[in-house]
Design brief:
The chain is of the alpha/beta class. The chain contains 11 helices and 10 strands. It has 3 domains: 110 residues, Tetrapyrrole methylase, N-terminal domain (Cobalt-precorrin-4 Transmethylase, domain 1, 3-Layer(aba) Sandwich); 107 residues, Methyltransferase, Cobalt-precorrin-4 Transmethylase, Domain 2 (2-Layer Sandwich), CATH 3.30.950.10; 41 residues.
Length: 282
Protein backbone atom coordinates (compact mmCIF):
# COMPACT_ATOMS: atom_id res chain seq x y z
CA UNK A 1 0.00 0.00 0.00
CA UNK A 2 1.06 3.59 -0.63
CA UNK A 3 3.44 5.24 1.82
CA UNK A 4 2.86 8.78 0.48
CA UNK A 5 0.83 9.64 3.58
CA UNK A 6 -0.01 8.38 7.05
CA UNK A 7 -0.92 4.69 7.13
CA UNK A 8 -4.13 2.89 8.04
CA UNK A 9 -4.83 0.37 10.78
CA UNK A 10 -7.19 -2.36 9.57
CA UNK A 11 -9.00 -4.41 12.23
CA UNK A 12 -9.59 -7.69 10.42
CA UNK A 13 -11.91 -10.51 11.50
CA UNK A 14 -10.68 -14.02 10.70
CA UNK A 15 -12.45 -17.42 10.75
CA UNK A 16 -13.40 -18.92 14.12
CA UNK A 17 -13.11 -22.43 12.75
CA UNK A 18 -14.06 -22.92 9.13
CA UNK A 19 -11.42 -21.23 6.95
CA UNK A 20 -13.96 -20.81 4.14
CA UNK A 21 -15.66 -18.14 6.25
CA UNK A 22 -12.94 -15.58 5.55
CA UNK A 23 -14.19 -12.75 3.35
CA UNK A 24 -12.76 -11.75 -0.02
CA UNK A 25 -12.13 -8.29 1.39
CA UNK A 26 -10.19 -9.72 4.36
CA UNK A 27 -7.87 -11.73 2.11
CA UNK A 28 -7.39 -8.68 -0.13
CA UNK A 29 -6.43 -6.47 2.83
CA UNK A 30 -4.15 -9.10 4.40
CA UNK A 31 -2.39 -9.45 1.05
CA UNK A 32 -1.98 -5.72 0.59
CA UNK A 33 -0.84 -4.46 3.99
CA UNK A 34 2.80 -3.91 4.88
CA UNK A 35 2.50 -5.76 8.18
CA UNK A 36 0.10 -8.05 10.04
CA UNK A 37 0.00 -7.73 13.84
CA UNK A 38 -1.10 -11.18 14.98
CA UNK A 39 -2.03 -12.48 18.43
CA UNK A 40 -0.42 -15.84 17.60
CA UNK A 41 1.88 -15.76 14.57
CA UNK A 42 2.02 -19.55 14.28
CA UNK A 43 -1.75 -19.89 14.15
CA UNK A 44 -2.14 -16.98 11.76
CA UNK A 45 0.60 -18.38 9.54
CA UNK A 46 -1.60 -21.40 8.87
CA UNK A 47 -4.38 -19.10 7.66
CA UNK A 48 -2.01 -17.04 5.52
CA UNK A 49 -0.48 -20.13 3.95
CA UNK A 50 -3.90 -21.48 3.01
CA UNK A 51 -4.64 -18.34 1.01
CA UNK A 52 -1.07 -17.78 -0.22
CA UNK A 53 -0.72 -14.49 1.65
CA UNK A 54 2.90 -13.36 1.92
CA UNK A 55 2.64 -10.25 4.10
CA UNK A 56 5.10 -9.93 6.97
CA UNK A 57 3.92 -10.62 10.51
CA UNK A 58 4.74 -9.35 13.97
CA UNK A 59 3.49 -10.76 17.28
CA UNK A 60 1.02 -8.53 19.12
CA UNK A 61 -0.63 -9.96 22.23
CA UNK A 62 -1.52 -9.24 25.86
CA UNK A 63 2.05 -9.78 27.04
CA UNK A 64 3.77 -7.37 24.66
CA UNK A 65 1.15 -4.81 23.64
CA UNK A 66 2.65 -2.05 25.83
CA UNK A 67 6.04 -2.43 24.16
CA UNK A 68 4.75 -3.11 20.65
CA UNK A 69 2.11 -0.40 20.43
CA UNK A 70 4.57 2.54 20.08
CA UNK A 71 6.49 0.54 17.47
CA UNK A 72 3.36 -0.04 15.39
CA UNK A 73 2.14 3.55 15.79
CA UNK A 74 5.50 4.80 14.52
CA UNK A 75 5.22 2.55 11.47
CA UNK A 76 1.69 3.79 10.80
CA UNK A 77 2.72 7.44 11.10
CA UNK A 78 5.53 6.79 8.63
CA UNK A 79 3.00 5.49 6.10
CA UNK A 80 2.88 1.73 6.65
CA UNK A 81 -0.47 -0.05 6.56
CA UNK A 82 -1.07 -2.64 9.30
CA UNK A 83 -3.72 -5.33 9.77
CA UNK A 84 -4.60 -6.34 13.31
CA UNK A 85 -5.83 -9.94 13.70
CA UNK A 86 -6.57 -12.17 16.68
CA UNK A 87 -6.33 -15.95 16.94
CA UNK A 88 -9.84 -16.13 15.51
CA UNK A 89 -12.91 -13.99 15.14
CA UNK A 90 -13.08 -10.23 15.60
CA UNK A 91 -10.16 -8.51 17.38
CA UNK A 92 -10.87 -6.68 20.66
CA UNK A 93 -13.77 -8.99 21.58
CA UNK A 94 -12.04 -10.77 24.48
CA UNK A 95 -8.85 -10.44 22.40
CA UNK A 96 -5.94 -7.95 22.32
CA UNK A 97 -6.11 -4.71 20.37
CA UNK A 98 -7.79 -2.01 22.44
CA UNK A 99 -4.47 -0.38 23.38
CA UNK A 100 -3.39 -0.19 19.74
CA UNK A 101 -6.76 1.08 18.47
CA UNK A 102 -6.90 3.80 21.13
CA UNK A 103 -3.32 4.85 20.41
CA UNK A 104 -4.01 4.98 16.68
CA UNK A 105 -7.08 7.15 17.15
CA UNK A 106 -5.20 9.45 19.53
CA UNK A 107 -2.50 9.83 16.86
CA UNK A 108 -4.98 10.73 14.12
CA UNK A 109 -4.51 7.42 12.32
CA UNK A 110 -7.45 6.01 10.38
CA UNK A 111 -8.84 2.80 11.92
CA UNK A 112 -10.89 0.70 9.48
CA UNK A 113 -13.08 -2.30 10.28
CA UNK A 114 -12.93 -5.38 8.07
CA UNK A 115 -15.82 -7.32 9.64
CA UNK A 116 -16.41 -11.03 9.53
CA UNK A 117 -16.77 -14.07 11.78
CA UNK A 118 -17.68 -13.60 15.44
CA UNK A 119 -18.48 -16.35 17.92
CA UNK A 120 -20.84 -14.01 19.79
CA UNK A 121 -23.00 -13.27 16.76
CA UNK A 122 -22.80 -16.84 15.44
CA UNK A 123 -24.11 -18.24 18.73
CA UNK A 124 -26.88 -15.66 19.03
CA UNK A 125 -28.02 -16.28 15.46
CA UNK A 126 -28.71 -19.99 15.98
CA UNK A 127 -30.02 -20.19 19.55
CA UNK A 128 -33.35 -18.44 19.22
CA UNK A 129 -32.99 -16.36 22.39
CA UNK A 130 -33.87 -12.64 22.15
CA UNK A 131 -31.19 -10.75 20.23
CA UNK A 132 -32.65 -7.25 20.11
CA UNK A 133 -30.90 -6.57 23.41
CA UNK A 134 -28.08 -8.64 24.90
CA UNK A 135 -24.93 -8.25 26.97
CA UNK A 136 -21.54 -9.78 26.27
CA UNK A 137 -19.46 -10.58 29.35
CA UNK A 138 -16.58 -12.35 27.61
CA UNK A 139 -14.59 -14.64 29.91
CA UNK A 140 -15.57 -14.46 33.56
CA UNK A 141 -12.80 -13.82 36.13
CA UNK A 142 -10.80 -16.91 37.05
CA UNK A 143 -10.81 -16.34 40.83
CA UNK A 144 -13.95 -17.42 42.67
CA UNK A 145 -14.45 -14.11 44.51
CA UNK A 146 -14.44 -11.79 41.47
CA UNK A 147 -16.40 -14.39 39.47
CA UNK A 148 -19.09 -14.50 42.16
CA UNK A 149 -19.24 -10.69 42.28
CA UNK A 150 -19.67 -10.48 38.49
CA UNK A 151 -22.43 -13.09 38.45
CA UNK A 152 -24.24 -11.37 41.31
CA UNK A 153 -24.33 -8.16 39.28
CA UNK A 154 -25.85 -9.81 36.20
CA UNK A 155 -28.11 -12.41 37.84
CA UNK A 156 -31.18 -10.16 37.50
CA UNK A 157 -30.29 -9.01 33.99
CA UNK A 158 -33.33 -9.11 31.69
CA UNK A 159 -31.28 -9.25 28.49
CA UNK A 160 -29.73 -12.36 26.96
CA UNK A 161 -26.27 -12.96 28.46
CA UNK A 162 -23.33 -14.19 26.36
CA UNK A 163 -20.19 -15.70 27.90
CA UNK A 164 -17.03 -17.31 26.57
CA UNK A 165 -15.50 -20.20 28.47
CA UNK A 166 -12.58 -22.56 28.09
CA UNK A 167 -12.90 -26.32 28.32
CA UNK A 168 -10.89 -26.40 31.58
CA UNK A 169 -13.23 -23.99 33.40
CA UNK A 170 -16.61 -24.91 31.92
CA UNK A 171 -17.82 -27.11 34.79
CA UNK A 172 -16.67 -24.60 37.41
CA UNK A 173 -18.47 -21.78 35.60
CA UNK A 174 -21.69 -23.77 35.25
CA UNK A 175 -21.63 -24.55 38.97
CA UNK A 176 -21.06 -20.85 39.71
CA UNK A 177 -23.97 -19.95 37.44
CA UNK A 178 -26.19 -22.45 39.26
CA UNK A 179 -25.33 -20.75 42.56
CA UNK A 180 -26.47 -17.34 41.30
CA UNK A 181 -29.17 -18.08 38.69
CA UNK A 182 -32.41 -20.02 38.84
CA UNK A 183 -31.97 -23.70 37.99
CA UNK A 184 -34.76 -23.48 35.39
CA UNK A 185 -33.11 -20.62 33.46
CA UNK A 186 -32.79 -21.57 29.76
CA UNK A 187 -29.16 -21.98 28.66
CA UNK A 188 -27.45 -22.85 25.39
CA UNK A 189 -23.96 -24.32 25.26
CA UNK A 190 -22.44 -23.79 21.80
CA UNK A 191 -19.35 -25.92 21.20
CA UNK A 192 -16.83 -25.69 18.36
CA UNK A 193 -18.86 -23.23 16.28
CA UNK A 194 -18.32 -23.52 12.48
CA UNK A 195 -16.01 -26.52 12.98
CA UNK A 196 -16.57 -30.16 12.02
CA UNK A 197 -17.85 -31.10 15.48
CA UNK A 198 -20.06 -28.04 16.00
CA UNK A 199 -22.73 -28.83 18.59
CA UNK A 200 -25.42 -26.79 20.31
CA UNK A 201 -27.00 -28.02 23.54
CA UNK A 202 -30.19 -26.50 24.93
CA UNK A 203 -31.70 -27.01 28.34
CA UNK A 204 -32.20 -25.58 31.78
CA UNK A 205 -29.15 -24.63 33.78
CA UNK A 206 -29.69 -27.53 36.15
CA UNK A 207 -30.13 -30.00 33.28
CA UNK A 208 -26.99 -28.90 31.41
CA UNK A 209 -24.86 -29.07 34.55
CA UNK A 210 -25.68 -32.78 34.73
CA UNK A 211 -25.00 -33.41 31.03
CA UNK A 212 -21.56 -31.77 30.82
CA UNK A 213 -18.79 -34.35 30.74
CA UNK A 214 -21.09 -37.12 29.52
CA UNK A 215 -23.46 -36.11 26.72
CA UNK A 216 -21.63 -32.79 26.30
CA UNK A 217 -17.94 -33.54 25.62
CA UNK A 218 -15.32 -31.50 27.46
CA UNK A 219 -13.48 -30.68 24.26
CA UNK A 220 -13.14 -27.53 22.20
CA UNK A 221 -14.20 -23.93 22.71
CA UNK A 222 -17.51 -22.84 24.22
CA UNK A 223 -19.98 -19.98 24.03
CA UNK A 224 -22.68 -19.87 26.70
CA UNK A 225 -26.01 -18.12 26.17
CA UNK A 226 -28.24 -17.51 29.19
CA UNK A 227 -31.80 -16.31 28.91
CA UNK A 228 -32.59 -13.06 30.67
CA UNK A 229 -34.59 -13.06 33.86
CA UNK A 230 -38.28 -12.61 33.14
CA UNK A 231 -40.37 -9.94 34.82
CA UNK A 232 -37.42 -7.66 35.53
CA UNK A 233 -37.35 -4.05 34.41
CA UNK A 234 -33.82 -2.94 33.61
CA UNK A 235 -32.33 0.38 34.73
CA UNK A 236 -32.48 1.57 31.10
CA UNK A 237 -36.18 0.73 30.81
CA UNK A 238 -36.92 2.37 34.15
CA UNK A 239 -35.35 5.54 32.82
CA UNK A 240 -37.52 5.41 29.69
CA UNK A 241 -40.62 5.00 31.85
CA UNK A 242 -39.57 7.86 34.15
CA UNK A 243 -39.04 10.30 31.27
CA UNK A 244 -42.20 9.21 29.46
CA UNK A 245 -44.30 9.57 32.63
CA UNK A 246 -43.09 13.14 33.13
CA UNK A 247 -43.69 14.11 29.50
CA UNK A 248 -47.10 12.50 29.06
CA UNK A 249 -48.52 14.83 31.70
CA UNK A 250 -47.95 17.74 29.30
CA UNK A 251 -48.62 16.18 25.88
CA UNK A 252 -50.22 13.29 24.03
CA UNK A 253 -48.78 9.79 24.52
CA UNK A 254 -47.66 9.69 20.88
CA UNK A 255 -45.72 12.93 21.24
CA UNK A 256 -44.30 11.79 24.59
CA UNK A 257 -43.02 8.58 22.99
CA UNK A 258 -41.33 10.53 20.19
CA UNK A 259 -39.72 13.01 22.58
CA UNK A 260 -38.59 10.25 24.97
CA UNK A 261 -36.94 8.48 22.04
CA UNK A 262 -35.19 11.70 21.01
CA UNK A 263 -33.98 12.47 24.54
CA UNK A 264 -32.62 8.98 25.21
CA UNK A 265 -31.44 8.03 21.74
CA UNK A 266 -33.71 4.98 21.84
CA UNK A 267 -35.91 3.87 18.95
CA UNK A 268 -39.59 4.89 19.04
CA UNK A 269 -40.60 1.23 18.80
CA UNK A 270 -38.52 0.40 21.86
CA UNK A 271 -39.94 3.32 23.86
CA UNK A 272 -43.48 2.32 22.90
CA UNK A 273 -42.99 -1.34 23.86
CA UNK A 274 -41.60 -0.35 27.27
CA UNK A 275 -44.06 2.42 28.12
CA UNK A 276 -47.33 1.27 26.55
CA UNK A 277 -48.60 -0.11 29.87
CA UNK A 278 -47.46 2.93 31.84
CA UNK A 279 -49.95 5.28 33.54
CA UNK A 280 -50.99 7.97 31.09
CA UNK A 281 -50.98 5.78 27.98
CA UNK A 282 -54.73 5.46 27.87
Amino acid sequence: MSKDSIGTLYVVATPIGNLEDISARATKILNAVDLIAAEDTRRTQGLLSTFNIKSKMIAYHDHNEIEQTPVLIDKLIRGSSIALVSDSGSPLLSDPGIVLVRAARASGISVVSVPGPSAVISALSIAGLPTDRFIFEGFLPRASGPKSDRLSRIANESRTIVLYESVHRLINTLEALKAHFEADRVVFICRELTKIHESVYEGTLGDLCERVGTEIPLKGEFVLLISGKEGVISAEDNELIRIFTLLVKEMTPKTAVSLTAKITGTSRNRVYSVTRLSPGYE
